[in-house]
Structure prediction request, 227 residues.
Amino acid sequence: GENVEQHPSTLSVQEGDSAVIKCTYSDSASNYFPWYKQELGKRPQLIIDIRSNVGEKKDQRIAVTLNKTAKHFSLHITETQPEDSAVYFCAAKKAGNQFYFGTGTSLTVIP
Amino acid sequence: SAVISQKPSRDICQRGTSLTIQCQVDSQVTMMFWYRQQPGQSLTLIATANQGSEATYESGFVIDKFPISRPNLTFSTLTVSNMSPEDSSIYLCSVSRDNIVNTEAFFGQGTRLTVV
Prediction:
């Protein structure tokens, strides 16, 4: 089955700096890569996703890049704000299959 | 999007008893999943709930301990049977609309279970 690894497990940045979280996957058939944000005590919520036919996608301060050859994808948050503090999960999926989640990154943005 | 109602939101149960968690979706969905999440940890898939047939369980999870029902495309239940303190966790229902064209997963608000 698929194996998704996520790094780092914890990340602290100063407000206004950028944060980068990286994930690798093992199954070359995976073709959908969502990122979820989970605030304390809340359910995971999708913040951005990318499909395998695209190399990069951006939504305001959030961007995701995908390197299919190397089987890795990354989340980039620019101009971080305290409300960005949360746990972020990457995931990989292929059609008809389950989502495989990374181990999560706890991001703290220091005011 | 999909609106998911999961209940109960929390419960404290005696060891040896069972708890059934319900997941109701506002529209038909193809795929429904049940996850367990320990505080500060990632999401561990328990099983995929299949409509009209037995659930597909992940390694380490068995039907006798976590029986699942899915009578239609909008509803599923997960039962945690013969509970022990090790079952204390957050249980999350998740759905995905389409299994042909990948779409995002939506989550219920979770059930925080404490076994005493």
Observations:
- The mean pLDDT of chain B is 93.
- Chain B has no helices and eleven strands.
